Amino acid sequence: MPTTTKKAKPKEGSHRGSAQSSANRLNVQKTYKLFIGGKFPRTESGRYYTLKSAEGEQLGNICRASRKDFRESVLAARAAFKGWSAKSAFNRSQILYRLAEMLEGRQAQFIDELTMQGSTKVAAQKEVIAAVDRLVYYAGWCDKYQQIFSAVNPVASSHFNFSVLEPTGVVVIVAPEENSLIGLVTTAASAIAGGNTSIILASESKPLCAVSFAEVINTSDVPGGVINILTGKLSELIGHFTTHMDVNSIVYCGDDRAMIKKIKSDSTSNLKRPVFRTAINWLSAEAETPYFISDMQETKTTWHPIGI
Amino acid sequence: MKTKRKAAVKANKTNSSNGSMVDISLKFDEGWSYSPAPESTDHVSIKERYGLFIGGKFVKPALGKYFATINPATEKKISEVANASSADVDKAVKAARKAFGPWSSLPARERGKYVYRISRMMQEKARELAVIESMDGGKAIREARDIDIPLAAAHFFYYAGWADKLDYAFPNKKPTPLGVAGQIIPWNFPLLMAAWKIAPAIAAGNTVVLKSAETTPLTSMKLAEIIQEAGLPDGVVNIITGAGDTGAALVNHPDIDKIAFTGSTGVGKIIQNAIAGTDKKVTLELGGKAANIILDDAPLDQAVEGIINGIYFNQGHVCCAGSRLFVQEDVADTVIRKLKDRMQTLIVGDPLDKNTDIGAINSKEQLATINRYIKIGKNEGADFYQSKCKIPNKGYWCPPTLFLNVSQSHRIAQEEIFGPVLAVQTFRTVDEVIEKANNTPYGLSAGIWTDKGSKIFNITAKLNAGVIWANTYNKFDPTSPFGGYKESGFGREGGLPGLQAYLNLG
Question: CA-CA distance, A271 to A265, in Å (whole number)?
């Protein structure tokens, strides 16, 4: 009925009426939600913030995640850690590759969302393609970084001694504010390639791709809880991130000096490993490195006697 | 001295009604007594007073203050060392900064050769260093001689060779040194910790200011003399002495690029907090509460040796000490009987005696801490057992101690005691012991004893610890990375990761 009576013609390229909009059909809008433990809940707090485009057009009501949402995410990530870290490297590799396959098929949606949030069409296309390739890149590392960073140590006594990397555990990732897709994809991929589980806070000003990426994750054989995605305000959540006693590492992608200081200082609560990714060109080869995997790893050294 | 010999072994029939159960108890208290075999000290040169080693020279402290360092086995003063003030720290950092440019631009091979030279001279003076280490810190000469000093020299030797090979160490990276490193070490392995800190730092092209521990400054002063003798360029290594204030001044000095700290988790957290607003890099080697796990198929006699070595090595002043023993239920009685027998054979006394197994507790304060925990253990209801060995009248001593029937919530099972006190628990299944072993904020080390390889790899993979000894314990090597998970700190010392801690990978 409304299709015939109302001239609902949203602007082209806006979220509220996406690329396939037509003059005589009301678009079905997406509710942007959180992604916790493989499910898509809205924030338990019921709060939201309204995302607008540069032109002031409303793009969506975004969940403003609460401390409780974060704590639920940590529970989910911790529960998923045992299984994910025990998966064979080959299996993890295939699952990351599957992520690339899923993203490849949904390029248009991500290009749309990036464009709505201010990217040019060309830049959006470039970022989405790079994100797909980035997933393939890190998929390949899953069963190789150990061979680069592990060692058999030639100790002087009669022992067999070797060092391997093990995942740090549950990692909180503050995704970069700009390059909201590829920054998030790079950091998430490098964390889970190494067997960690993660909670990611999406870019506050550009959260759309993060939520849509959760849909990609959900169709890619990534077990629930391995990647959890929150949207909301960093200033409100950071204190909870740094002081949670069951988080092992916090990765901050940004360059706010005060934030870096706070993270370093507050994470002494349980000595989480603070990792900083400042001034990274996420689209460049700089963001393709096994050192992004190894800085979320612990070295474990094992000794065994020889001959007795 | 006359040696008294009596029958060392007596057979006691404990269940003689059917004659089938014969318990062999070892009565060591009636057995051998050893003649003293003290290491001589006449060849050792210790000055009456040491200044601060800054810019290649021993200099007087700015405020002219010194403090005594005593022998914890005799409570007698050995020497005195300078109490470095913040002015002295500043002077040392300036000397290190001045030396950094030339040192880091020296041809890498030449840099390495200096480090080799230090190692060689330490080997030449090994006996003297071992005796002083034993006198100053109370550790048994056997351990100082066979472990501390050779390993310290080996650390310099290992890292020396890396100096001109850094481009091969980290694939696709061109590493550069960080600058000036401030290093703070504890009193349990004074010279070895100095070596762990200084060797990788200077081999990688950094310069350092090292603060030795308050109660054990002497071998670091001897190391300073060796560094002088080796002709290392002035200011590359600066060694200062003092207490907590000196350490704080070093941590907070604005011209430091890197802090490396070994010590308690509490102080480690304070340090990280203090430098949070700076670009200083940090590595922390902190406390531990390691699980030493004995499965029922373990070689029990070897395991008992491993338990003894795990907790009583260096008077238990070891961050990676196996201070929580987990024994599988069906062998618990046997293991504990063997353990008690073996404890009774340990000789506690003069650290300079070559027969001594357990030397003096490092300081009066540490002895008070240990005794406080023993009291806590008793009050919490655990069963107390201590070796009935004789201990000297003077000095600080603690006989080998264990607690049975300990539960997870007991403070003696949760907190680091840093003394010869073992908390014993039992378990039924492997899953249970993994759960219990990981139930601690620490994650430095662990031990596992079983004759089945597949069990070893199952358990070592699931324990949250940086160093795991399987069918052995408390082994160290310069090529082997050392450091912990969780609140045992971050970063590694030893091996390639130990080198990375002193480099910018860019």
Answer: 10
Taking the Cβ of residue A24 and every Cβ of chain B, the question of whether any pair is shorter than 8 Å is answered with no
3-state secondary structure of B449: strand
pLDDT at A198 over 70: yes
CB contact under 8 A, B489 and A271: yes
- Mean pLDDT of the region B23-41: 74
Check CB contact under 8 Å for A157 and B460. no
Q: Which CATH number fits domain B288-470: 1.10.3720.10, 3.40.309.10, 3.50.50.60, 3.30.70.100?
A: 3.40.309.10
Tell me what pLDDT residue B34 has: 82
B285 as an active site residue: the answer is yes
Strands (E), chain A: 48-52, 58-63, 151-152, 159-167, 170-174, 197-201, 227-230, 249-252, 273-276, 297-305
Exactly one of B285, B416, B487, B493 is catalytic; name it: B285
Q: Is the pLDDT of residue A74 over 90?
A: yes
Chain A residues whose beta carbon lies within 8 Å of the beta carbon of residue B273: 265, 268
For chain B, give every residue range classified as CATH 3.40.309.10: 288-470
Distance CA A18, CA A23 (A): 12
Looking at residue A22, its pLDDT comes to 67
Residue B459 CA to residue B467 CA, distance in Å, equals 13
CB contact under 8 A, B480 and A303: yes
* CATH match of B49-286 with 3.40.605.10: yes
> Average pLDDT, stretch B397-408?
97
- Tens of pLDDT, residue by residue over B243-279, are 999 999 999 999 999 999 999 999 999 999 999 999 9
Which of B156, B282, B485, B503 best probes binding to A when mutated, by most A CB atoms within 10 angstroms?
A: B485
Taking the CA of residue B122 and the nearest CA in chain A, the distance in Å comes to 18
Q: Is B110 a catalytic residue?
A: no
Tell me the pLDDT tens digit for each residue of B313-349.
999 999 999 999 999 999 999 999 999 999 999 999 9
pLDDT digits (tens, 9 = 90+) for A106-145: 999 999 999 999 999 999 999 999 999 999 999 999 999 9
Domain A67-305 has CATH 3.40.605.10: yes
Contacts for A77 with CB less than 8 Å, ≥ 6 apart: A170, A197, A198, A199, A225, A226, A228
Q: What is the dihedral of CA B471, B474, B476, B482, to 10 degrees?
A: 100
